[in-house]
């Protein structure tokens, strides 16, 4: 049941992210300012998360020092505010398919940075090391092909598109440079998210309140994004949101991506682990291709398909190598636990075979033996039942020297 639930949750998460990219791309095509979008998104998310964090964490949250608050401010600046603006600009310059394909680099870049910081190992002479290295190489080749090779274009089979997409199917020289810049910016934003993911591990050990940490970073991002938008967007008419796709994109990304998806991801990790969640990332690419073709009428180039396939293959190579690396450790732990249980059971059996001489039952039986053994000595020595009884008594009560008492009887003498 838990596996079925985890699969369903993962499908919902990937669909939410794919739909979020399509809606955001449509809003950018309609003229929505990128910095304004990032600011409004995190402002609404802060309004939603703030009361929840206050209610849940107001009594049990650890004390927040100025040092921790400053660290969270810096993490928010490079990992969310700047990265969010850069990714949105890259999405505006490219296509939803290309940006979704590049998002598959996130687990690979996270592993690469963790290896640089000595949090992960990369052993070149082992099978798992070769798989990880080949996965990183495939991802790099995929990004290069995605940026510089277009190839034949597959047009959308749907001729009616609810949202107009002004991006041309074939790229001119100017749009080609714009496309390459968009690929570079999207890749840079994924690198920043990977760095944020790696450095947030030690941060959560220092300040373990996850809900309050997410809320504080959302508030810091809102403040930072406001000043970034003031600096980059001087046309104040762009700050006004109408009841159109722009407002829908802001509300959807704030509620579905910054709110619901975070909770669903934590739930999926709890059910099946982080590797399971990482392996589902290519589903976002599939959903994005279908949704962008239906709603935006985006043409899919051969270069995007080849680059996406290579990046997905690189992702699975890294995850496969990671799983192979962890398997011997799990087997070793199981063997150690089995050996400990076997030794414990052996010790218990050994203890059950012993008798405590100082126990009341043992002392009482010892006091009755002098009265019992003379009666036995008057019986027929050839009686096998009596001999068997005495042998059993001697074995069981060896600790109280029953054999010494029995050996003094006439039936066992010369």
From TrEMBL:
Source organism of this protein record: Rhynchospora pubera
Domain EamA: 5-146, 181-318
Membrane topology annotation: Multi-pass membrane protein
Comp. bias (Basic and acidic residues): 330-345
Family: Belongs to the drug/metabolite transporter (DMT) superfamily. Plant drug/metabolite exporter (P-DME) (TC 2.A.7.4) family.
Record keyword Transmembrane present: yes
Protein name: WAT1-related protein
Keywords: Membrane, Transmembrane, Transmembrane helix
Transmembrane portions of the chain: 34-56, 68-91, 97-117, 129-149, 179-199, 211-230, 242-264, 276-296, 302-320
Region annotation Disordered: where it falls in the sequence: 330-358
InterPro entries associated with the record: EamA_dom (IPR000620), EmrE-like (IPR037185), WAT1-related (IPR030184)
Keyword Membrane: yes
Subcellular location: Membrane
């Amino acid at each position: 049941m838990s596996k079925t639930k985890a699969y369903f949750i993962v499908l919902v998460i990937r669909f939410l992210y794919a739909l979020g990219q399509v809606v955001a791309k449509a809003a950018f095509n309609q003229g929505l300012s990128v910095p304004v979008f990032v600011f409004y998104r995190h402002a609404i998310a802060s309004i939603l998360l703030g009361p929840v964090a206050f209610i849940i964490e107001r009594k049990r949250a650890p004390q927040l020092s100025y040092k921790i608050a400053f660290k969270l401010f810096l993490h928010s600046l490079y990992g969310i505010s700047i990265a969010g603006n850069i990714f949105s600009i890259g999405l505006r310059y490219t296509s939803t398919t290309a940006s979704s394909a590049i998002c598959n680099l996130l687990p690979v870049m996270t592993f690469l940075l963790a290896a640089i910081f000595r949090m992960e190992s990369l052993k070149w002479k082992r099978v798992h090391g070769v798989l990880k290295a080949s996965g990183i190489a495939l991802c790099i080749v995929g990004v290069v092909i995605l940026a510089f090779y277009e190839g034949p274009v597959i047009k959308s089979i749907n001729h009616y598109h609810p949202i107009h997409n002004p991006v041309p199917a074939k790229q001119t020289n100017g749009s080609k440079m714009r496309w390459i810049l968009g690929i570079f910016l999207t890749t840079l934003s994924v690198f920043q998210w990977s760095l944020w993911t790696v450095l947030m591990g030690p941060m959560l050990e220092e300040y373990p309140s996850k809900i309050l940490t997410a809320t504080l970073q959302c508030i810091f991002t809102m403040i930072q994004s406001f000043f970034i938008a003031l600096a980059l967007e001087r046309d104040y008419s762009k700050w006004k949101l109408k009841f159109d796709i722009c407002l829908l994109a802001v509300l959807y990304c704030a509620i579905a991506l910054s709110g619901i998806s975070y909770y669903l991801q934590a739930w999926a990790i709890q059910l099946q682990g982080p590797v399971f969640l990482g392996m589902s990332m290519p589903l976002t690419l599939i959903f994005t291709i279908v949704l962008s073709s239906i709603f935006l009428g985006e043409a899919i180039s051969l270069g995007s398909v080849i680059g996406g396939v290579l990046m997905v293959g690189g992702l699975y190579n890294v995850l496969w190598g990671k799983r192979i690396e962890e398997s011997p450790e799990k087997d070793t732990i199981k063997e150690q636990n089995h050996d400990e249980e076997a030794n414990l059971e052996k010790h218990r059996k050994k203890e059950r075979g012993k008798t405590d001489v100082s126990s009341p039952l043992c002392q009482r039986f010892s006091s009755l033996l002098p009265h019992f053994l003379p009666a036995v000595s008057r019986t027929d020595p050839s009686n096998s039942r009596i001999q068997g009884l005495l042998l059993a008594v001697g074995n069981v009560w060896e600790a109280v020297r029953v054999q010494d008492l029995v050996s003094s009887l006439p039936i066992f003498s010369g």
